[in-house]
Every structure is written in structure tokens, then in C-alpha cells.
């Protein structure tokens, strides 16, 4: 795997070995954006309290009776698209479908592996913003807001939409996320041992 340097991380934070150290209210990633394969970056984050308050509504059954200190990790993915995804039209729709299929294949493999290890895990449908496995949820999760919060990537406003800007790919990026209660070492093990089936679509 190739680790990608993120320009939003202060130099002082990059030299600090403690991955959960708060930097101006922001938590340094447990795993910085890393390419699992070309054009498919993954990062892992401890969810800050601000995000946990939102996740309690996105995954109500999981957070029932739990406070804002629940230990949940976010696994963010960013895929490099073949075109600027702020565009509209048939070509853009086909590209989004391709990237969606790739993410779902990846996320299903990761979530299945984590659930098999007795941890809760679920992923977001980027089309609807709703969880794929959690039932009775009508709270929409914003992928762009999540990446903006956890990776500090910039965004642009286009009418009523926010467009994510990747530091290297610009608007040619497709973000999607999954969440789990598994500890980081388990998540890292799963990411390093993905089978070929995780990449069987979208190529």
C-alpha cells in the first residue's frame, strides 16, 4: 500500500507518533490516506464527538443507550474518477455508477469480515446517504461533510450542493464511508487482507 501525504496535516502533527492527538479540535487520522490500489485511497479515523452526535441518528439501534463517548471508527474511501463529478449528464452518471459498484464491493468485504469478528459495522449508500444494513433509519449522512471534517479537504458550493476537492484530484473524486466499533488494529488487519473479490467490479 502507498501512503499519500496529506497537505492538511500540520508538520508538528506529522512528527507526533500519537495518532489520536487533537489538533485544534481535529483528530489526526489513525491511518492517513493510503492507496489500497491505484486511485482508491482509504483512511481510518476515530470519530470525534461532533460526528458521534450525528451518527446516533444515522445508526439509532447501534447507539441506543450509549453516550457520545462510544468508540466508533470511520473508514473513509476516496476514489479517483475519470472526470470532474460536479458535471451532469449521462457520462457522469455512468462514472458514478462504476465508482459506486467498486465501493460497495469493497465495503461489503470489509463489513462482512468485521462482523465475522463479532464487531458492529455498516456502510453508507453514497446515492441516498442512508445506511446499507441498519433498518429504520431516515437520517441522511453527508459524505462530503464527513471528509471535510475528518480530512480537512476543501469544498466548493455549487448552488445547493457542496463539491469535495481532493488535494491531488480536485473535483474528480468519489467519497464513501463505512463505520465500525472494531479497534484500529482489527480494521488494519482486514484492510491488509482483502481478497481479490473486493476489486472484481468497477475496473
From TrEMBL:
One of its GO terms (biological process) is cobalamin metabolic process. It comes from the Eukaryota. It holds the Pfam family MMADHC. PANTHER family: COBALAMIN TRAFFICKING PROTEIN CBLD, MY011 PROTEIN. This is Methylmalonic aciduria and homocystinuria type D protein. The lineage of its organism: Eukaryota, Sar, Stramenopiles, Oomycota, Peronosporomycetes.
